[in-house]
């Protein structure tokens, strides 16, 4: 079974509310989509969000990489040659990892379809049910508490609280949110690089002093500041430290683990450059006894589904799930085998990603 063609599109999904972090504000998911077709009628789908503030990949760059380098390299390739096809994708051009992730997702989708297995089974199997957190955008405290209440009413039992935009008021913001909802939802903090190490230690110490327990703190300091991460860990505070923007790929994950610079690693397909790379990071973390989070950017139900399948197959090492892209969207335009119903993600037994229809997509010529 050979790849006979590829098609590119742009998927647009309005968000329920604007998504606000220390790095950016957006009100719409607008992702590149690739569909790989085979000579015997199968289609595999991949998706890539343009998260310029984190990955550096714009929509134009992603589409150009897929159209000019990655897509053509895959034409005529045998779907069964998954490793070789992923190698071609990784070597097609430098950078633009989001485009590579989209292409790999489509390749894994096709490969699993050719085996007649849902992707998570082709990856080793598991129990096809996950529970994700929901991200609470950084806003004034009252709005954030209202958003936490709304999320809890939707059934979310873990919330990822965005801070780092106004460091001076973050302790008060976190303590107020903790006082309002702790005990009804596990609280995760994500500062998206908005603090420095000294500020982070001060914030976490203030939370400890107040007896306000948080499940983890994600990427408080700039991505390149490994010394800062080490200093935060050395301060011996209660909140576990999760590396996100500091841990893009296998090499960076290894550097973090070698220096013991984080308690957990957030694996994302868009940072790693696809499933093959994300699996390698998971394997490394498993060998070092480190737990991972499976995370996402602002992703719809194609790439978030692929991440969910990977997480289901590697629950031995992936213990925390932040796959809330589809739940942040106003609707889910993907008819596939993965259902995102608020906090609960389930997968049925259709092969691959089981995608039979995608609406709200503009196919490009
Ligand atoms: C959407 C996901 N829960 C999330 O928060 N991801 C962010 C970055 C996403 C973005 O800016 O598009 C993160 O973990 O930092
Ligand atoms: Mg993060």
UniProtKB/TrEMBL annotation:
Binding site for substrate: 24, 135, 160, 296, 298, 322, 324
GO-annotated molecular function: metal ion binding; racemase and epimerase activity, acting on amino acids and derivatives
Domain of life: Bacteria
Mandelate racemase/muconate lactonizing enzyme C-terminal domain mapped to chain residues: 141-239
Binding site for Mg(2+): 190, 218, 244
Assigned EC number: 5.1.1.-
Free-text cofactor note: Binds 1 Mg(2+) ion per subunit.
Cofactor(s) annotated in UniProt: Mg(2+)
Catalytic residues, chain numbering: 162, 268
CDD domains: L-Ala-DL-Glu_epimerase
Plastid listed as a keyword: no
Keywords: Isomerase, Magnesium, Metal-binding
One GO-annotated biological process of the protein: peptide metabolic process
Record Pfam families: MR_MLE_C, MR_MLE_N
Entry's family note: Belongs to the mandelate racemase/muconate lactonizing enzyme family.
Protein name: Dipeptide epimerase
Species annotation: Arenimonas maotaiensis
